[in-house]
Amino acid sequence: KLRLLQQLSESDPAGAKRMLEELTTSLDSAIQELREFAHGVYPPLLMDRGLGEALSAAAARASLPTRVDTDGIDRYPEDIEAAVYFCCLEALQNAGKYAGDGATATVQMREDEGGLMFAVIDDGRGFDVKARPGGAGFINMNDRLGAIGGDLRVESTPGAGTKVSGIIPLPG
Asked: In what order do the strands lie in the sheet with 151-156?
């Protein structure tokens, strides 16, 4: 369709415009389907071994040197483990893209006062949270946590790194 669109753009601009609108709709639909599929994929290591091992494996693949501290973390319902895991992955990916050369990251997790808390902290370049609206990654993290009653917080200061943290209430 893209090749046809390219050919039509010169000979039939109105037809090309209609086809471009159709392609845009099709692409938006395909992206949404892919997001829904990816959202439902549950990593086998997370399922078998839990957050500690799954996050340690993710840290080993991260583009920044990353330390993981999940001592004392137990197993939790799948929706909670998935939300924490994917939020940590997103935060690690953001750190890898934006923290800068020489930065390192830490993933921390602990259970406290009926809630599961996590944080991904980098010592990179940071940014002004108020001046820079959250992108798709932050929206996705907020949505994941919000769906299970959790909250996300982003703290950052230019030149002093970034901390993405969340808390999820645990069932009684």
From this structure: 66-69, 105-112, 115-122, 162-169, 151-156
